[in-house]
Specification:
With 231 residues, the chain is mainly alpha-helical. The chain is built from 9 helices and no strands.
Length: 231
Protein backbone atom coordinates (compact mmCIF):
# COMPACT_ATOMS: atom_id res chain seq x y z
CA UNK A 1 0.00 0.00 0.00
CA UNK A 2 1.37 3.38 -0.99
CA UNK A 3 1.68 5.80 1.91
CA UNK A 4 0.54 9.41 1.66
CA UNK A 5 3.51 11.79 1.30
CA UNK A 6 4.46 13.77 4.40
CA UNK A 7 3.98 17.02 2.51
CA UNK A 8 0.30 16.15 1.98
CA UNK A 9 -0.17 15.06 5.59
CA UNK A 10 1.27 18.32 6.84
CA UNK A 11 -1.23 20.25 4.74
CA UNK A 12 -4.32 18.38 5.94
CA UNK A 13 -5.11 20.69 8.91
CA UNK A 14 -5.09 23.66 6.54
CA UNK A 15 -7.27 22.30 3.74
CA UNK A 16 -9.98 24.81 4.62
CA UNK A 17 -7.68 27.57 3.34
CA UNK A 18 -8.04 26.23 -0.23
CA UNK A 19 -11.53 27.73 -0.55
CA UNK A 20 -11.69 31.51 -0.70
CA UNK A 21 -15.17 32.75 0.16
CA UNK A 22 -16.61 35.79 -1.64
CA UNK A 23 -16.41 39.09 0.20
CA UNK A 24 -20.10 39.19 1.14
CA UNK A 25 -19.87 35.74 2.69
CA UNK A 26 -16.76 36.70 4.65
CA UNK A 27 -18.51 39.83 5.92
CA UNK A 28 -21.51 37.74 6.94
CA UNK A 29 -19.19 35.32 8.72
CA UNK A 30 -17.61 38.22 10.62
CA UNK A 31 -21.03 39.43 11.74
CA UNK A 32 -22.01 35.94 12.88
CA UNK A 33 -18.70 35.53 14.71
CA UNK A 34 -19.22 38.83 16.52
CA UNK A 35 -22.84 38.19 17.50
CA UNK A 36 -21.93 34.79 18.93
CA UNK A 37 -18.59 35.85 20.38
CA UNK A 38 -17.66 33.59 23.32
CA UNK A 39 -17.59 36.54 25.70
CA UNK A 40 -21.40 36.78 25.42
CA UNK A 41 -22.17 33.09 26.06
CA UNK A 42 -22.04 33.00 29.89
CA UNK A 43 -24.62 35.79 29.93
CA UNK A 44 -26.69 33.97 27.30
CA UNK A 45 -26.69 30.85 29.47
CA UNK A 46 -27.74 32.75 32.60
CA UNK A 47 -30.50 34.59 30.70
CA UNK A 48 -31.74 31.27 29.35
CA UNK A 49 -31.89 29.79 32.86
CA UNK A 50 -33.84 32.77 34.16
CA UNK A 51 -36.23 32.54 31.20
CA UNK A 52 -37.04 28.96 32.23
CA UNK A 53 -37.97 30.11 35.74
CA UNK A 54 -34.82 28.68 37.33
CA UNK A 55 -34.21 31.83 39.34
CA UNK A 56 -35.41 33.11 42.68
CA UNK A 57 -38.87 31.56 42.75
CA UNK A 58 -39.18 31.44 46.55
CA UNK A 59 -39.28 35.23 47.00
CA UNK A 60 -41.82 37.90 46.10
CA UNK A 61 -42.00 39.05 42.45
CA UNK A 62 -40.60 42.51 43.25
CA UNK A 63 -37.64 41.11 45.15
CA UNK A 64 -37.14 38.45 42.48
CA UNK A 65 -36.83 41.11 39.79
CA UNK A 66 -34.29 43.08 41.82
CA UNK A 67 -32.21 39.98 42.60
CA UNK A 68 -32.32 38.91 38.95
CA UNK A 69 -31.16 42.33 37.80
CA UNK A 70 -28.30 42.28 40.30
CA UNK A 71 -27.17 38.81 39.18
CA UNK A 72 -27.29 39.88 35.53
CA UNK A 73 -25.25 42.98 36.36
CA UNK A 74 -22.58 40.88 38.07
CA UNK A 75 -22.46 38.45 35.15
CA UNK A 76 -22.34 41.26 32.58
CA UNK A 77 -19.49 43.06 34.34
CA UNK A 78 -17.38 39.98 35.07
CA UNK A 79 -17.87 38.06 31.82
CA UNK A 80 -18.36 40.81 29.23
CA UNK A 81 -17.38 44.31 30.32
CA UNK A 82 -14.06 43.64 32.06
CA UNK A 83 -12.75 41.19 29.40
CA UNK A 84 -13.70 43.58 26.58
CA UNK A 85 -12.08 46.55 28.34
CA UNK A 86 -8.91 44.53 28.95
CA UNK A 87 -8.24 43.84 25.25
CA UNK A 88 -7.63 47.44 24.07
CA UNK A 89 -5.62 48.07 27.25
CA UNK A 90 -3.36 45.11 26.48
CA UNK A 91 -3.02 46.40 22.92
CA UNK A 92 -2.11 49.91 24.08
CA UNK A 93 0.60 48.46 26.34
CA UNK A 94 1.84 46.37 23.37
CA UNK A 95 1.26 43.10 25.23
CA UNK A 96 -0.69 41.96 22.17
CA UNK A 97 0.05 43.10 18.62
CA UNK A 98 -3.56 43.18 17.38
CA UNK A 99 -7.09 43.26 18.76
CA UNK A 100 -7.89 40.07 16.82
CA UNK A 101 -5.10 38.12 18.61
CA UNK A 102 -4.46 35.89 15.62
CA UNK A 103 -1.27 34.42 17.09
CA UNK A 104 -1.82 31.63 19.59
CA UNK A 105 0.60 32.88 22.25
CA UNK A 106 -0.95 36.35 22.18
CA UNK A 107 -4.17 34.83 23.47
CA UNK A 108 -2.64 33.51 26.69
CA UNK A 109 -2.72 36.68 28.81
CA UNK A 110 -6.16 37.89 27.62
CA UNK A 111 -7.66 34.46 28.30
CA UNK A 112 -6.00 34.38 31.71
CA UNK A 113 -7.44 37.79 32.63
CA UNK A 114 -10.85 36.72 31.37
CA UNK A 115 -10.75 33.52 33.44
CA UNK A 116 -9.87 35.53 36.56
CA UNK A 117 -12.65 38.03 35.87
CA UNK A 118 -15.25 35.28 35.38
CA UNK A 119 -14.07 33.56 38.57
CA UNK A 120 -14.45 36.86 40.43
CA UNK A 121 -18.05 36.97 39.23
CA UNK A 122 -18.51 33.40 40.45
CA UNK A 123 -17.22 34.34 43.92
CA UNK A 124 -19.64 37.27 44.09
CA UNK A 125 -22.55 35.04 43.11
CA UNK A 126 -21.49 32.32 45.53
CA UNK A 127 -21.64 34.88 48.36
CA UNK A 128 -24.90 36.42 47.16
CA UNK A 129 -27.37 37.39 49.96
CA UNK A 130 -29.93 34.94 48.52
CA UNK A 131 -28.67 31.53 47.28
CA UNK A 132 -28.11 31.56 43.52
CA UNK A 133 -29.29 28.37 41.75
CA UNK A 134 -26.52 25.77 41.72
CA UNK A 135 -26.83 25.18 37.98
CA UNK A 136 -26.08 28.87 37.42
CA UNK A 137 -23.06 28.83 39.74
CA UNK A 138 -21.66 25.68 38.14
CA UNK A 139 -22.07 27.12 34.64
CA UNK A 140 -20.18 30.31 35.55
CA UNK A 141 -17.45 28.35 37.34
CA UNK A 142 -17.10 25.98 34.38
CA UNK A 143 -16.82 28.96 32.02
CA UNK A 144 -13.93 30.27 34.11
CA UNK A 145 -12.15 26.90 34.14
CA UNK A 146 -12.65 26.41 30.39
CA UNK A 147 -11.20 29.87 29.71
CA UNK A 148 -8.24 29.11 31.96
CA UNK A 149 -7.61 25.91 30.03
CA UNK A 150 -7.79 27.93 26.81
CA UNK A 151 -5.02 30.14 28.18
CA UNK A 152 -2.85 27.13 29.03
CA UNK A 153 -3.42 25.39 25.69
CA UNK A 154 -2.72 28.62 23.79
CA UNK A 155 0.90 28.45 24.93
CA UNK A 156 1.34 25.50 22.58
CA UNK A 157 -1.62 25.40 20.21
CA UNK A 158 -4.47 27.57 18.91
CA UNK A 159 -7.96 26.20 19.47
CA UNK A 160 -11.30 27.87 18.85
CA UNK A 161 -12.59 30.04 21.70
CA UNK A 162 -15.90 30.34 19.83
CA UNK A 163 -16.39 26.59 19.82
CA UNK A 164 -15.20 26.32 23.42
CA UNK A 165 -17.94 28.72 24.48
CA UNK A 166 -20.53 27.02 22.30
CA UNK A 167 -19.45 23.59 23.52
CA UNK A 168 -20.13 24.74 27.08
CA UNK A 169 -23.46 26.26 26.07
CA UNK A 170 -24.39 23.03 24.29
CA UNK A 171 -23.61 21.07 27.48
CA UNK A 172 -25.92 23.41 29.40
CA UNK A 173 -28.72 22.93 26.85
CA UNK A 174 -28.25 19.15 26.95
CA UNK A 175 -28.42 19.18 30.77
CA UNK A 176 -31.60 21.29 30.74
CA UNK A 177 -33.12 19.13 28.01
CA UNK A 178 -32.44 16.03 30.10
CA UNK A 179 -33.69 17.21 33.49
CA UNK A 180 -36.05 20.13 32.88
CA UNK A 181 -37.44 19.91 29.33
CA UNK A 182 -37.41 16.20 28.41
CA UNK A 183 -40.44 16.54 26.13
CA UNK A 184 -38.95 18.97 23.63
CA UNK A 185 -35.87 18.92 21.42
CA UNK A 186 -36.31 22.49 20.18
CA UNK A 187 -33.44 24.11 22.09
CA UNK A 188 -31.19 21.12 21.47
CA UNK A 189 -31.76 21.29 17.72
CA UNK A 190 -31.36 25.07 17.61
CA UNK A 191 -28.03 24.82 19.43
CA UNK A 192 -26.82 22.14 17.01
CA UNK A 193 -27.71 24.43 14.11
CA UNK A 194 -25.88 27.29 15.82
CA UNK A 195 -22.79 25.12 16.28
CA UNK A 196 -22.78 24.30 12.57
CA UNK A 197 -23.24 27.97 11.67
CA UNK A 198 -20.39 29.23 13.85
CA UNK A 199 -18.02 26.44 12.82
CA UNK A 200 -18.69 27.23 9.17
CA UNK A 201 -18.14 30.95 9.75
CA UNK A 202 -14.79 30.35 11.44
CA UNK A 203 -13.68 28.07 8.61
CA UNK A 204 -14.72 30.57 5.94
CA UNK A 205 -12.69 33.26 7.71
CA UNK A 206 -9.70 30.87 7.85
CA UNK A 207 -9.43 31.55 11.58
CA UNK A 208 -9.25 27.85 12.44
CA UNK A 209 -9.03 24.44 10.87
CA UNK A 210 -11.31 21.52 11.64
CA UNK A 211 -9.12 20.07 14.38
CA UNK A 212 -8.94 23.40 16.21
CA UNK A 213 -12.72 23.73 16.08
CA UNK A 214 -13.29 20.20 17.37
CA UNK A 215 -10.69 20.67 20.12
CA UNK A 216 -12.38 23.87 21.24
CA UNK A 217 -15.79 22.22 21.33
CA UNK A 218 -14.51 19.29 23.38
CA UNK A 219 -12.86 21.58 25.94
CA UNK A 220 -16.03 23.57 26.56
CA UNK A 221 -18.43 20.62 26.41
CA UNK A 222 -16.42 18.37 28.73
CA UNK A 223 -15.73 20.96 31.43
CA UNK A 224 -19.22 22.45 31.58
CA UNK A 225 -20.83 19.03 31.23
CA UNK A 226 -18.75 17.57 34.05
CA UNK A 227 -19.52 20.39 36.49
CA UNK A 228 -23.23 20.41 35.66
CA UNK A 229 -23.66 16.67 36.07
CA UNK A 230 -21.21 16.06 38.93
CA UNK A 231 -20.63 19.51 40.49
Amino acid sequence: MKLMPKSVLNQLPELNSVYHAPKWLKNLSKIVSFIFHPVFLPMAGVLFLFSLGLGFQSVSPDLRNKLTQLVLAIVAISTILLPLVAIPMLYSFKIISSIEMKQSKERVFPFLLTAISIFWGYILLQNFPVPVPEIMLNYILASSIATLLLAVVSVFYKISAHLTGLGGFFALILFINTYYLPDTMLFFNLTLALLALIATARLLLHEHNGLQLISGFLVGFSIVGFLLYYG
